[in-house]
Design a protein that fits this description.
single chain; mainly alpha; 434 Repressor (Amino-terminal Domain); elongated
Length: 112
């Protein structure tokens, strides 16, 4: 009869999360301080987490939400505007009329 010993490394999820956070933060070109501001977690805690320190479920949640939000903001800023901007270009021979204001009479009340 053989005995098999299985060792569970309880720190593996923290190390995996740490490497993911570090890679995502760097890909967004963010400092640890910027991620700390976005997540509400102290900068020294972010640095400890990225070094493989233990994390709580709440810390993982806040960091994940912050990275998601920051990534979406970056992606949105990189997209071209969906509304055309007035670049001042005009077709030859055309002019743009100046805006005018109209005076509108107040409606007359019945019986006055």
């Amino acid at each position: 009869m053989s005995t098999i010993i299985i060792t569970i490394d309880s720190n593996e999820p923290d190390r995996l999360f740490a490497s993911t956070v570090r890679a995502m933060r760097r890909s967004l070109n963010l400092s640890a301080a910027a991620l700390a501001r976005a997540s509400g977690i102290a900068r020294h805690s972010i640095e400890t987490i990225e070094a493989g320190g233990t994390t709580t479920p709440a810390q993982r949640h806040h960091i994940t939400v912050a990275l998601h939000s920051l990534a979406n903001n970056r992606a949105t800023q990189a997209l071209p505007s969906t509304t055309p901007r007035d670049d001042g270009a005009r077709l030859p021979g055309t002019t743009v009329a100046a805006p005018t204001r109209r005076r509108v009479k107040a409606p007359a009340h019945a019986g006055q």
